[in-house]
Amino acid sequence: MSDQGVTRTLARWAVECRLADIPQDVRDQGVRTFVNWLGCAVGGVSHETVDRALDAVRLFSGPAQATVIGRGDRLDALHAALINGVSSHVLDYDDTHLKTIIHPAGPVASAALAVAEMQPVSGADLLAAMIVGVEVECRIGNAVYPDHYDRGWHITGTAGVFGAAAAVGRLLGLDEQRMTWALGIAATQSSGLREMFGTMCKSFHPGRAAQNGALAAFLAKSGFDSSERGIEAPRGWANVVSTKQDYTEITEGLGKTWEAGLNSYKPFACGIVIHPTIDACIQLREEIGDEVRNIEKVELRTHPLVLELTGKTAPRTGLEGKFSVFHAAATALLRGDGTPTAFTDEAVNDPSIVELRGRVKAETDQSIHEDQVEMTVTFHDGRQVNRRIEHAIGSLDRPLTDEELDRKFIKQSEAILGKEGTERLLSAAWRFAEMDDVAEIARLSVPNGTATSA
């Protein structure tokens, strides 16, 4: 570590890293991250959470600088970053850095693309900024996880603000000193509580991280200073929000090992810890077909984090359903579904799902890994079927292919943009790093004839 401190060391790297310094496989993952984020932002934009957030911020939005992805509303860049961060996360369908459970792209891409509509930004510069931002937030998350998360902080919001500040700082051309200030300004705005899971506030966290991180970079650009040890000082961020601080996770191997290359993408629109259960239930449904109607009970053995995060036995709304392993299991068995349509108010209150949900039982076992599950299904005639998932689909061991990302994108986007609009946007998303002006992505995300100013 530099004798000048963790924050400054990280800032220096964030400023000096060049796209050519980033390995090709990490750049490829950066493109996948952007494609996945864009599909989720379009897919989430019709959710009532986004409607209500837009109703509120329109009162305060400044110049029409940037696009609400998938809608065409034009807001100032900071509020556009906020809304796009909300829409990209509201379906809980976005990317995941599995070591920390951070959803990296929401804060970073939402902030960076909004700024790219304010000034000319090439796709190559956006890609480098995104990868640096993801690397910054995930390394900072590594330094305090799991204690920080266990204490009740939503790490996507709290670490994401650093990633957004670093990404936007690069696009604004910050030098080392100003990037150091930007990270400090981000640190003092870091927030997000796990208590909010299952409510609209959960998706507000990455949106606010995008907005606050971008603001941190703009303030620093204007010479607004902060502590130069905002992360590591005795009363700095890491010591205030966690009892664990391993700063080697931030500084060692910078530019040599890449957290940004470890991103994963969800096949199911809910908390990542439920994915093994949904995977098992969909596999079983494909095997037994209509016999799912004859299930007497479902018994799950899961990692303890599953019930801690998703133990809601009687969810009332679609957002709450994303935090109910019982609802997810019942819906996957009865409908074969784990996509956003499985987590609507209608699905949560469907009588047949509610009835089966009551017959799903779960117990925890420390020997079960987070991406594993053991499931026993007992039928009315006494027969039993067992299913064990070693690695859920979408994990690093069973990652989604580019073709599967395409299908996920298309399913989300066609309802908003139609078939032709989706094809144009998806094609552009895969080649965004080659663009001279990446703001074209935002323009292509707008349904025909719907662009409006705040």
Automatic annotation (TrEMBL):
The MmgE/PrpD N-terminal domain sits at: 9-248
What InterPro entries does this protein's entry cite? MmgE/PrpD_sf (IPR036148), MmgE/PrpD_sf_1 (IPR042183), MmgE/PrpD_sf_2 (IPR042188), MmgE_PrpD (IPR005656), MmgE_PrpD_C (IPR045337), MmgE_PrpD_N (IPR045336)
Extract the SUPFAM superfamilies matched here: 2-methylcitrate dehydratase PrpD
Q: Where are the transmembrane segments?
A: none
| Domain annotation MmgE/PrpD C-terminal: ranges | 268-430
MF terms from GO for this chain are: lyase activity
Give the similarity note. Answer: Belongs to the PrpD family.
Report what the protein is called.
MmgE/PrpD family protein
Task: Say which species the protein is native to.
Answer: Microvirga makkahensis
